Amino acid sequence: MSRPQTVADAIDDEATVDLLQDLVRIRSPYFEEAEITEFVYDWLDERDLDPDYHHVSEPDITGYEGDNVVARLEGSDPDAPTLLLNAHMDTVKIVEAWEEDPCSGRIEDGKLYGQGACDMKGGLAGIMVAFEALADADLAGDVLFTAVVDEEGPYGLGADALIRDGYTDDCDAAIVTEPGPILAQSDVENPALILGARGRFLYDVEVTGLAAHGSQPHKGVNAVVDAGRVAEALDELDVDSHPDLGDGSVCPIRIEGGSQTLSVPESARVMVDRHVVIGETKEMVRDQAETAIDDLDLASDVEVGFREAPADDIYYGPYVTDEDHPLVRSLDGATREVAGVDPDVAYFSSVGDFNYFGDRAGLPTVIVGPDGENIHGAGEFVYTDEVVEVARIVAAAAHSYTG
After folding, report:
1. What is the pLDDT of the chain when averaged over all its residues?
2. What range(s) does the Peptidase M20 dimerisation domain occupy (predicted)?
3. In terms of C-beta density within 10 A (0-12 exposed, 13-18 middle, 19 or more buried), how is residue 322 classed?
């Protein structure tokens, strides 16, 4: 097969949806991905696509041990670009509010239901069948398939390990098949190309007061009260804006402290989510928080830090991919060929593995994935026709981009 459209046409609707159903029926919350990892490996191996396990280890904080699945199609021209295809295999923890089996894979009215169906087993199925179709195509450049663990967990350890172990070093661009429109900064519909994302830091603020008997609070310094004032001050921080990514945001998400009855709490902790745009650096957001807290003139001692992480470079930086990049042009053309329309263009409101590729690895990265509803919640579903459409768009664009 030599034309991008021909590669897209090789993707079978029924086989793609059957694969998606198989994936959804495998329970795979983050840190519990062994079964789905083996399934993805075996699926590729049965098609002679030469997969490998890539071990992921984080012994210090989480004690996690797991495996990514990687495979590579080698092109004929060493000077042609290499494209990374990425999806994650894990889901959030199973939500208790499901009124049916959360891994049923039930299909009704073009919707396939299950935890992780949209986020992102639909996208995972899409790159699997796209990669299979590309194996029969004449490729100039390489295509690197990566199915990773722990995207939904605290640190994105699977994608982090890919970068840390050099898998992205020879890549020139990346496609991540996360569901895009549902979390876009603007109101768009598929087919859509998501060309960037905000970044994120997580403030971890320690507040230290002075213990005293609860009947005489004036003799102590109440760390819980001061923690509330810290949360309010951070909630009101000024944030920057970006012409594509929109505004940054601040959201206090946890206050904890105090335990003894009849005692003034001597310590408390405040966790605050900070989504950032390009230009808002780690140093800048720390300085802003420290200044806002200093202005409160609290009696407690306050130390502003960030969430503990396995390494200093594990954070989600914001990024934007140029609309004129060759990968974007290839995806634009593939969308018109496959769907017969021009794609919408938007930017992501939150964070994921794509931030690691777009910021840390410096790869022009585009999110293009099937949409649905109720992601991370009970009743999650993905539109099956969009899973097939995304697979075809990715296959056609990959063929075009790599030469």
Report:
1. 96
2. 196-296
3. exposed
pLDDT score of 1 more than 60:
no
pLDDT digits (tens, 9 = 90+) for 60-111: 999 999 999 999 999 999 999 999 999 999 999 999 999 999 999 999 999 9
For the whole prediction, is pTM greater than 0.90? yes
In this prediction, residue 347 has a pLDDT band, given cuts at 50, 70 and 90, of: very high
Architecture label for domain 4-198+318-401: 3-Layer(aba) Sandwich (3.40)
CB within 8 A of 343, min separation 6: which ones? 191, 192, 193, 331, 332, 335, 368
Instruction: Look up residue 191 and give its two tokens.
Output: 């087919």
Contact 335, 190 (CB under 8 A): no
Domain 199-306's class? Answer: alpha beta
Task: Report the alpha-carbon distance of residue 61 to residue 208 in Å, rounded.
Answer: 24
Which tokens in the block code for residue 387? 């899973």
CATH 3.40.630.10 intervals, the chain: 4-198+318-401
112's tokens: 């396939």
